[in-house]
Design goal:
Layout (H helix, E strand, L loop, with lengths): L4 E11 L3 H13 L5 E4 L14 E4 L12 H11 L6 H20 L21 E5 L2 H12 L2 E3 L2 E8 L7 E8 L5 E11 L29 H8 L4 E2 L8 E3 L7 H5 L4 E3 L11 H8 L10 H16 L3 E3 L7 H12 L3 H9 L11 E3 L13 E2 L25 E3 L11 H22 L9 H21 L15 H15 L8 E2 L1 H18 L7 H26 L10 E2 L7 H4 L1 E7 L6 E7 L6
Parallel strand pairs: 1-2, 1-8, 2-5, 8-15, 16-17
Antiparallel strand pairs: 3-4, 6-7, 7-8, 9-14, 9-18, 10-13, 11-12, 18-19
Helix pairs in contact: 1-4, 1-11, 2-3, 3-11, 5-15, 12-15, 13-14, 13-15, 14-15
The structure holds flavin-adenine dinucleotide.
Flavin-adenine dinucleotide (FAD) binds next to helix 1, strand 3, strand 6 and helix 11.
Length: 610
């Protein structure tokens, strides 16, 4: 296929221009006026990633200038919410720097709401501050754009490239332009992956006509995990998927409702139900149920139990709060700047929350490292606070030399959110600059053969389709290829039924996970025969391949951890209790890039904050 090849040699390549990527782009220039910094983004950084549509709150702000919270408090909070397990060094490091990122956003024009009495930023909750955030992403993207040498929009990065002079060292990345089809080869001394989390690996509640609607961005296609996994980087806590309690059908967020509007939930009969499940939950997880605030997964657990007991649906009680015109406005505006679809769903279903308490539901599971769970790559922490086992020279560097990550890509740093992801990008970039300076004599060697092999692989779905299409006269079913949508639905069904999705009430066990792994393996074989009709479908094909490999990792981790650490996110039916004696650990995996075999291990959880 006659697509043009474009070569770009640079010092730092940022893969994905979302919150983490923009933070990396901005900070890299601060430390390296002399380096060539390039961003490769599959959409357009002005409106890409999970913040594309805007946000209504910045969920991670300490407020150290007013002594509202200290970084230690945030570590305790994240650790508590994650049932005792986070990378405390990474969490502390993010928290101590996050305020300065938020101050930058304000300086760049993001309107932050202020409390009229104190003059402080308007709090939505202990950690969240409220913003007029429709243009959050374009504002942050502008800072990135002004900092770098070049932004390549519309480049779907499919693989990382490896340096052939040294083992286990990254040498760049490769992908294709989703509009022109051109092959883009980036040779870089350091790569920072900020390619977002993973939606659509489990079957979503929205199917058929609503299928595109998921809570996590539908375009977050697990590249942040697949790219490092494919080159043998270690991953951590990939079993720690998240399930969200959200407004039904539109996945509208509930944070502002709970925290700011002070709405609350009740069952179908108007009863409070969480306290009923106290003893039941205590029998499973012990004293974690007595922690304050109640860990999110345990609140989900009560929700799921109440519905399973036949007293659903669960409603959000909005009728009282919405009698106050100010709160009513806040309630609607919360959606209009962030999840406009929820407002449209309510309008279409005749739901006015002033008169009807809307239904809530629990979402399908998602995998991501920046929101309220901590799946992602295993990365080095900062030198001043990380214990030896968490430190190998460069902050936020993965176990592949020169390969860094930020945001959803990195494991262990829950509750970073948009501001924390941007902050992590900054930290990663600063370390990447140091890495390049320390290795000034390294010559990156990416051979023509490596590029040629990848080129063939990248375009193969187009060829599969072109050849296989001749065997049929019409329709979408062919004897020799499957289409990306077919493959996606098969993946979602496998993950749903075997790895603990909505269809099985988030329940799984060892036999199910082993069956699931077998089926995922067969799916991977079939994905060699995926057919792409055009460039759009070629992107879908690669997104699916990334999702499939990340799903395998999630399933391996879920199989490895023999306990139910986060009831409400998923359950191991064969190990229904939390087991601190054996599993108060971080789980690590590595996929051998040659054999495709997985190795699992445990890493200690160091509590560096008391
Ligand atoms: C529905 C929702 C609501 C949220 N609400 C809040 C909130 O109220 N407050 C808050 O602070 N945070 C919120 N968050 C969290 C916040 O959006 C994330 O923490 C943050 O965006 C993560 O940053 P990231 O850089 O890891 O990923 P993203 O910002 O998602 O960026 C990933 C980027 O990588 C690109 N990309 C993906 N794959 C490839 C590839 N293969 N090649 C090239 N580019 C690629 C994407 O296009 C995207 O630009 C919310 C998230 C969601 C989904």
């Amino acid at each position: 296929m006659g697509f043009k090849t474009v070569y770009e040699d640079c010092d730092i390549l940022v893969v994905g221009g979302g919150m983490g990527g923009c933070g990396a782009a901005f900070e890299a220039r601060h430390w390296a006026r002399d380096m060539k910094i390039v961003v490769a983004e599959k959409a357009n950084i002005d409106r890409s990633g999970a913040v594309a549509q805007g946000l209504y709150a910045i969920n991670c702000y300490m407020g150290m200038q007013w002594d509202e919270n200290q970084p230690e408090d945030h570590v305790r909070y994240a650790r508590n919410d994650l049932m005792g397990i986070v990378r405390e060094d990474l969490a502390y490091d993010m928290a101590r720097h996050v305020d300065s990122a938020v101050h930058k956003f304000e300086e760049w024009g993001l309107p932050l709401m202020r409390d009229p009495e104190t003059g402080h930023y308007q709090r939505e909750g202990k950690w969240q501050i409220m913003i007029h955030g429709e243009s959050y992403k374009p504002i942050v993207a502008e800072a990135a754009r002004k900092s770098v040498d070049k932004i390549y929009n519309r480049i779907m990065v499919t693989h990382l490239l490896m340096d052939e002079n040294q083992p286990n060292r990254v040498g760049g990345a490769i992908g294709f332009n989703v509009r022109t089809g051109g092959l883009h080869v980036f040779r870089a001394k350091a790569v920072i992956v900020g390619a977002g989390g993973a939606s659509h690996i489990f079957k979503p509640r929205s199917v058929g006509e609503g299928m595109g609607r998921t809570w996590y961005a539908p375009w977050s296609s697990a590249s942040a995990y697949a790219l490092p996994i494919m080159v043998g980087a270690k991953m951590t806590q990939m079993e720690n998927r998240i399930v969200l309690c959200r407004f039904k059908d539109g996945y509208g967020p509930v944070g502002a409702y709970f925290l700011h509007l002070k709405t609350y939930t009740q069952n179908a009969y108007g009863d409070e139900y969480e306290s009923k499940w106290y003893q039941h939950t205590k029998d499973m997880v012990g004293e974690y149920i007595d922690h304050h605030p109640t860990p999110t997964c345990l609140r989900n657990h009560a929700f799921l139990q109440e519905v399973a007991a036949g007293r659903g649906p669960i409603h959000m009680v909005t009728k009282e709060a919405f009698q106050d015109p100010h709160k009513e406005t806040v309630g609607w505006e919360n959606f209009l700047g962030m999840t406009v679809g929820q407002a449209v769903v309510w309008a279409s279903q005749n739901i006015d929350p002033k008169y009807i308490n809307p239904e809530l539901t629990t979402s399908e599971p998602y995998v991501m490292g920046s929101h309220a769970t901590c799946s992602g790559a295993w990365a080095s922490g900062p030198e001043d606070i990380s214990p030896d086992e968490y430190y190998w020279g460069y902050n936020r560097m993965m176990t592949v030399e020169g390969l860094f990550g930020a945001g959803d890509a990195l494991g262990g740093t829950a509750h970073a959110f948009s501001s924390g992801s941007f902050t992590e990008g900054r930290l990663a970039a600063k370390a990447a600059v140091k890495f390049i300076r320390d290795h000034a004599n390294d010559k990156i060697n990416v051979s023509d053969k490596q590029i040629e092999d990848r080129r063939k692989e990248i375009y193969k779905p187009l060829e599969n389709y072109q050849v296989g299409r001749n065997e049929i006269v019409g329709g979408t079913v062919s004897p020799s290829y499957i289409l990306p949508l077919h493959g996606l639905q098969r993946l979602e069904k496998i993950m749903d039924e075997y790895a603990g999705g909505i269809g099985v009430n988030y329940m799984t066990n060892e036999p199910l996970l082993k069956f699931g792994l077998e089926k995922l393996k067969i799916l991977q074989e079939d994905l060699e025969h995926i057919g792409a009709e055009d460039l759009h479908q070629l992107q879908r094909a690669w997104e699916l391949k990334h999702r499939a490999i990340a799903s395998e990792c999630v399933t391996q981790h879920t199989l490895f951890r023999k306990e139910t650490r986060w009831p409400g996110y998923y359950y191991r039916g064969d190990h229904l209790k939390l087991d601190d004696e054996n599993w108060h650990v971080l789980t690590l995996s590595r996929r051998d890039p040659e054999s495709g075999e997985w190795e699992m291990e445990k890493a200690p959880v160091y509590h560096i904050v008391d």
